[in-house]
Amino acid sequence: MQKGIVDNMAKGVVAGYPMVDVRVTLIDGKFHQVDSNDMAFQIAGSMAIRKGALDAGPVLLEPIVEATIKVPEKNLGDIMSDVNGRRGKIMGTEPDDGYQLVRVTVPESEMLRFSLDLALHHAGSRQLPQEFSHYDEMPAHLAKTIIEEFQKQHEAAQ
Asked: In the prediction, which pLDDT does 124 show?
């Protein structure tokens, strides 16, 4: 049974991503002399975790990175607006010899073009190294798109 649960958790039930922060407890089970075998228990575990996960209302999580942006003081408002437009949060600012160091947390997917956009639109600004911060719930409208695409691919494969 455990193998069926673990395998299904690794595949995920919503969009093909692994499930995290899940605890499974077996409450009851029966053994039948003829029908009970390893494969039957794996299938039962797989079906149980799938139903339980879907009933629990799972959400997609996305990686959030922490970064520091060095920006000329005159561009501070533009950068703050840009970060907010990328679903980011301003964690703080501090002056640095005519510049501002802006500490932000932003979804990793939103940071992919950020360095390029900084160079193109905000002369003198640059992003300093970033690092993983945590996972956070993805907004429902973005998750819906990913889930629908996964379901289309999954149906096409069958």
From this structure: 66
Amino acid identity, position 6: V
Residue with structure tokens 């899940």? 22
d(CA 2, CA 26): 10
C-alpha distance across the termini of the chain, in Å: 25
Task: Provide DSSP, 104-138.
Answer: EEEEHHHHTTHHHHHHHHSTT-EEPP-EEEEEEEP
Other C-beta atoms lying within 10 Å of the C-beta of residue 145: 12
Can you tell me whether residue 64 is helix, strand or coil? strand
Is the overall model pTM greater than 0.85, yes or no? no
Average pLDDT, integer, range 7-32: 82
Q: What is the mean pLDDT of the chain?
A: 85
Is residue 85 within 8 Å of 59, Cβ to Cβ? no
